Amino acid sequence: MNQADGAVSTSGTHFSFSILHAAKAIEDRIEGALGTVGLSMAKHSALSRLEEAREPMSLSELAEKLSCVRSNITQLIDRLEADGLVRRVADPDDRRSIRAELTPLGREKQAAGADELAKVQQELSAQVAVSDLASLESALQSLS
Fold first, then answer.
1. Which one of 7, 18, 50, 92 has the largest count of C-beta atoms within 10 Å of its C-beta?
2. How far apart are CA 112 and CA 106, in angstroms?
């Protein structure tokens, strides 16, 4: 990190690798937790966006909310539909368009995934001193 005189400390020389390592470890924990309820991060993210919308959403809109291309969303919705978590419905305003909506099982899985994410968040927060959490969050936000 930068010292007051502007010099870079040797302890911060490879801080970016530490961030990447921590991110991978956190990702693995999240994937593992979501896996206990039969979800991946991608599946849970899609289910969460659909839950937040509270109504069927076009695949294009879902792709935009998840920052991915439409072909990826089509494949993801295919998998979610095969799992019984979403269904495709016709768009009442455009018969050429298809929307996705949660099934009751999809709502249950999304809620179960949210509970698992909350547990991981709590575990991670417990590993970092309370006094360091705000600084860590601020530092990470400054990098994005």
1. 50
2. 10
Q: How many CA atoms lie within 13 A of 129 on its CB side?
A: 3
DSSP letters spanning 13-42: TTHHHHHHHHHHHHHHHHHHHHHTTT--HH
| Residue found under tokens 């010099």 | 7
Return d(Cα 17, Cα 107) in angstroms, integer: 37
Strand order in the sheet with 57-58: 57-58, 94-102, 86-91
**36-143 CATH, one of 3.40.50.720, 1.10.10.10, 3.40.250.10, 3.40.190.10:** 1.10.10.10
pTM above 0.85, yes or no: no
- How distant, in Å, are the alpha carbons of 83, 118, 128, 140 from that of 144? 34, 23, 21, 7
pLDDT digits (tens, 9 = 90+) for 93-131: 888 888 999 999 999 999 999 999 999 999 988 888 888
Residue closest to 84 by CA, chosen among 64, 97, 102, 63 = 102
